[in-house]
Design goal:
3-stranded antiparallel beta sheet, about 120 residues, alpha+beta, about 25% strand
């Protein structure tokens, strides 16, 4: 006998094959943090925030001051691949411009995602 419309014939009984439902999950998110150092000019940090994180002048200046005063600051929250790329781009760009500015990524905790 032939199979039609996801039905099969099994010893005189017809059974319908049900496709298992799969729930898609949101990918984990990662924070990209800019770390303070005593040598990178503030203007360069603002430039990096505008160039790689698409921040406006005011927001970039606020983040830069937060980094300067507190030791690190949040540049953005992204999926792993995007966060990793932004960290690499920032660190490479800083190195090529002879600045010690560093970026890192950190997994967003479940408590932080809901905020």
């Amino acid at each position: 006998m032939s199979q039609t419309n996801n039905e099969i014939e099994d010893k005189g009984q017809i059974q319908t094959l049900n496709k298992p439902s799969s729930k898609t999950q949101r990918p984990p998110l990662y924070k990209v943090l800019i770390l303070n150092d005593d040598y990178t000019p503030m203007d360069f940090v603002i430039h990096v925030l505008k160039k790689f994180f698409k921040k406006g002048e005011t927001e970039a200046a606020e983040i830069m001051l937060h980094v300067h005063n507190r030791g690190s600051g949040l540049a953005g929250i992204y999926t792993y691949e995007i966060a990793e790329t932004k960290v690499f781009q920032t660190n490479e760009y800083s190195r090529k411009n002879q600045h010690p500015l560093k970026c890192t990524l950190e997994k967003v905790s479940i408590n932080e995602e809901g905020q």
